[in-house]
Amino acid sequence: MKTPLEVLEDLVRIESPSGREERAADYLRALVPGAIVSGRNVWAVRGEGSPTLLLNSHTDTVPATPAWTKPPFDALNEDGKLYGLGVSDAKACVVGQLFAFLNARVPKGTLVWSATCDEETGGQGLEVLARDLPRPDASVIGEPTDMQPCIGQRGLLKLEVVAKGRAGHASRPHQGDNAIYRAARAALAIEALNEKIDPDDSLLGKATLCATLIAGGTRSNVIPPECRFTVDGRSTPNVDNEALIRMVRQVLSRDPQVEVTAKSGRFHPVLTPESARIVQVALAASAGSRARAFGGVSDLFHVRDCPGIIIGPGVPDQSHQADEHIAIEKFERGVEVYRWLVEGYFS
């Protein structure tokens, strides 16, 4: 069997953008006796009976961008760091959980390991695979957290705002109704809502709203008759998805030429009590850590019916960045912590 670092290097060399994870799944299946490939996911089970612990992370990555200055698929080992697309988010987690699955002592109960697809985009990953897995009593989701246990995450919603105007010649702007100006006023009104959102959640922080994409206009010399933009909302238990949608609709209702449509709002906040056994075991395994919140949205949502945490080697700031890397020493430490966590849960 190769070392964890060698397996991580191999996995980085396998290009696996969302939708093309088959080669990564086949590579991992060959390392795990009895592993099953289901679609672009791979999973395996050890032991039997209760309790059941799920280890899950994802093999898919975002695409490489032109901003990379190092080869994204060479698994470059340089100055104590391993460089590669997805090395931190989240292939180091996949490998760490794999070795915990293979090597941890499990005197009783069931340990389930899965490496899934489509986490970055949604689709055929854990959301679908969870139906076929043994129902977990607790879950460990692998994402880069510098091995700090995260016990919750905010929700996510996407809104589309459409501003309607009236076309005209750009040389006579007073004869048209510029939809870009309407959209700009709407976007600024949404920005101002962030100052009014209250209260903060003690762990997850504040709910937020942010305009992220915008498109409008037909030609450079035509007053734009329509402009639309996307709003990213992050919700908390105190200010949930529906509350954010109501706030946006209310503040934009002053302009009848502006419409708001909720495009996605199924990802709600997830929070595991700090008293849950999986949290206490994770805190003990990663000595000196404290429970915190995960900054984004993860597959924890798809197993929200049981207590779960998000934890993994790598730092969140490396996610989706050019020249993504992980400190090899911290990766190897993460492999150990995953094993300690599993053994602590089943002890």
Defining traits:
347 residues; alpha+beta; Aminopeptidase; Alpha-Beta Plaits; 2 domains; 6-stranded mixed beta sheet; 4-stranded antiparallel beta sheet; 8 helices; 18 strands; globular
Brief description of this entry?
The protein is α+β, with helices and mostly antiparallel strands.
Question: What does this 3D model show about the protein?
Answer:
- It is globular and about 75 Å long.
- β4 (76-78) and β5 form a beta hairpin.
- It is an alpha+beta fold and 347 residues long.
- The two termini are 26 Å apart.
- The strands form five sheets. It has a six-stranded mixed β-sheet. A four-stranded antiparallel β-sheet has the order 11-13-9-14.
- The mean pLDDT is 96.
- It is built from eight helices and 18 strands.
- It has helices spanning 4-13, 22-29, 87-103, 126-129, 179-193, 241-252, 277-285, 328-346; strands at 36-38, 41-48, 52-58, 76-78, 81-83, 109-116, 138-141, 150-153, 155-164, 168-169, 208-216, 222-223, 226-235, 258-267, 270-271, 292-294, 308-310, 325-327.
- The protein folds into two domains: 4-153 and 269-346, Aminopeptidase, CATH 3.40.630; 155-267, Alpha-Beta Plaits.
Strand content: 25-35%
Q: Determine the structural class based on helices, strands and strand pairing.
A: alpha+beta
> Main sheet, how many strands, which sense, barrel?
6 strands, mixed
* Annotated CATH architecture of the largest domain: 3-Layer(aba) Sandwich
Q: Number of helix segments? A: 8
CATH superfamily of the largest domain: Zn peptidases
Provide the low-confidence segments as ranges: none
Termini distance? 26 Å
- In the CATH scheme, the class of the largest domain would be Alpha Beta
Write down the Rg: 23 Å
> What's the total number of strands?
18
Broad shape: globular
Across the major sheet, the strand order is 1-2-6-3-7-17
Oligomeric category:
single chain
When the domains are counted, the total is 2
